[in-house]
Amino acid sequence: MLTGLSYREKILYASLAAELVVYCPYFFLHQQNSVNKVASMIVAIIVLQIILQSVIAAVTRYRVTDERDRLIELRGYRAGYLALASLMVLGLGMLWFHATVGHLRLDSKMVGLHFLSVFFGMLIIADITKTVT
Amino acid sequence: MAAIRNQIRELRALREMTQQELADKIGVTRQTVIAMEQDKYSPSLETAFKVAIVLDVSLEQCFQYDPRGKR
User: Fold this and answer.
1) Cβ contacts of residue A53 below 8 Å, gap of 6+?
2) A93, A103, A125, B17 from A99: Cα distances, Å
3) Does A73 touch chain B if contact means CB atoms closer than 8 Å?
4) Cystine design at A80: which of A48, A75, A91, A126 (Cβ 3.0–4.6 Å)?
């Protein structure tokens, strides 16, 4: 299946896979956020991306990127950006709603981490949108 | 049906050229040649000229524009 994909497409799928592998345990296993967990998640993504991209670069014979790859990338980034921007507004709106109507106290130390979780969640949805577009 | 159609597959077969050989000569990936042959991708003007030059035909012999086709 992977042999039919261009170098650029393989890199995109690898990037998405790395994010899913790191974000899923973050969202589903860690109920309590902490600065250390967020920092280790960011480091894990960077390390995993470097490893995956190195492996793909090593096993791919033709590493040419052409006009079609650039077009695919541009379309993906446009869709990803639109998804991220719209979800960011929605996420911030929800945080504000919970702070005013709900029980979330915005002066709490955890607000920054709540915001980061919302941001990472949107980032992964935007990345999925970018890759499937 | 695509707005821009082409005869790349037929012309390439006449010259017994593989998709990879054509891709290397015009500086694109094999996936792009496949997409062009299946009318799934309309190349840039520069790439279209390169294809016509490599296949030794005029641009009109290689690419046709159908105004009723979807873009």
Assistant:
1) A11, A14, A15
2) 10, 6, 24, 66
3) no
4) A126
- For residue A68, what are the contacts with CB-CB under 8 A and spacing of at least 6? A6, B28, B29, B31, B32, B35, B41, B43
Name the residue range of residue A52's domain.
Answer: 2-132
Q: What is the C-alpha separation between B35 and B4, in angstroms, rounded?
A: 12
A68 vs B30: CB contact, 8 Å cut-off? no
| CATH class, B4-55 region | mainly alpha
Tens-place pLDDT, residues A53-102: 888 888 877 677 789 888 888 888 888 888 888 888 888 888 778 777 77
Burial class (CB in 10 A: 0-12, 13-18, 19+), A99: middle
Per-residue pLDDT reduced to its tens digit, B11-67: 999 999 999 999 999 999 888 999 999 998 999 999 999 999 999 999 999 999 988
Residues of A in contact with B21 (CB under 8 A): none
